[in-house]
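A common beginner's mistake is to predict each chain separately and then try to dock the pieces by hand. The better habit, illustrated here, is to supply every component at once so that their relative placement is modeled jointly.
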Amino acid sequence: MKKINTLCIIDDDNIFTLVAKKIVNLVGFCENTVLLKNGREALDYFNELESKENTFPEVIFLDLNMPLMGGFEFLKELEKLKGSENTKVFIFTSSIDPDDQRRANEYKVVEQFVEKPLTVDKLKLISERIS
Amino acid sequence: MERDKARQTALQQLLIKIASTYINIDLDKVDSAIDESLKEMAEFVGADRAYIFEYNIESDQSTNTYEWCAPGISSEKDNLQNIPIDRIRVLARRHAQGQPFYLNNISSLVKPEEKELKNTLTNQGVQSMITVPMINEDQLIGFVGFESVNHKKTYTESELAILTIFANMLVNVKKRIQKESKLHSLLQISGDQNDRLKNFAHILSYNVRSHASNISMILDLIYNEYPELAELELIELLSNSADNLSGTIGQLNEVVQINTSAKGRLEVLNLNEIIERAIDNISPAASKKQVRIINMIMDRFEVYGISSYLENIFNSILLNAIKYCSDERDSFVKLYCLVQGKYVVLCVEDNGIGIDLDKQEFDIFGISTSFKESSGKGNTDLFITKNQVEAIGGRIEVESTIDKGSTFKIFLRYEEN
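With all components supplied together, the output reads:
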């Protein structure tokens, strides 16, 4: 299994990010985990990577409903960055609104729409899917 | 003679015209139609003014709402807003008895109680008049009338006929306006409720659900990282509660989605195909409990619905019948259809243990019943089933006798060919 270097988790819910990070470590999903609180913060981070021509994280776990900048707006901006070509976004949300799912699938960086919670089994499936 | 006959014909034509104008009038056009009718009627009978007054019984006032005046005749409408009924009491009394009020000559008003009316009419130069009350379900709402200003005129049966039919038409229009505004406000309310429901679904979906999923996630981590804790009874109970909470939120969300999204998505569906598919789906469960499924539906039916809803409805009802079969006899579930008015009624009859509907402390389709189920007992998804049936314009009923069986009747809107 090809190990992922960096995973970026973008979610305003501290409990989710904290527990998700533990699950990620438990499964050994990646080398590094970057935690970001909302789309705005994430976009700043990615803009900086782009300007320094650094490699983007291979995987992003993205929440939809966040303050300052939500998931969809972030996706729109992310797709404009050259570095995002090899990045795979997994939408993690509590929403089971079919409209959200439809919208998410319109972005080519979006790999999959995943309903929360994140579990060890779900993470293993994701890991298999991208390796 | 010839002239009388011609006039009689013209009168009939006028009456028919008034009646047909108002019978199905677009409510936006009432104002202009009334102005037009007043003119036509007044010109026909040779009156100087034609008008409509409304009574406000509570404030004991009357208001001139519409008026037509012949050329050269002064308009009095602005002087006749919210006037005390006392000024026209004599006339109002006749109206309250459902009678018209005629006056051929103003000088015949001589009694003391007629003095107010005489003054009022004199101020407007009225010499003769006829008025007919508008009565809506025993309630006096106003009157219509003609009057002559420059000359005396004897108003007769034909004027009475014209005003009577006009008054009746106006009462009908008024009723329609009331009904439509009631309907409009009901629609408004249900629209608001729908919005609130959507808002609620949103909160449920994002907020409540995210907390529930965090709890599940933490538990999942505990199970994986500290397997020894999983042995603890308390952790197991917590885990069950978390699963039930997620299940309940999921159910609630589904119901809200059903109620907000079904309208406008109805299509015509082949009932037989969907039933046959449902029978296939549940056949493993049926054979496991040795329940015979007897499909007695011979005719083909088309109903309005949403295919995924119908499939779920039939699955749930059939599974419910199988679940509550009796061990003491050969079990069966019979399906047949009846046609009742605009509904096809799918009947699902079993000879299972039955339900004591009188003793049942809650509605078997109720939300509390279905939530009991998340704790492991009670009925299958009947709550969602009922909501789905209602969302596609149908309804569901149940008849049952203890230890004899139950019949579920699903009323579906019928598409006649």
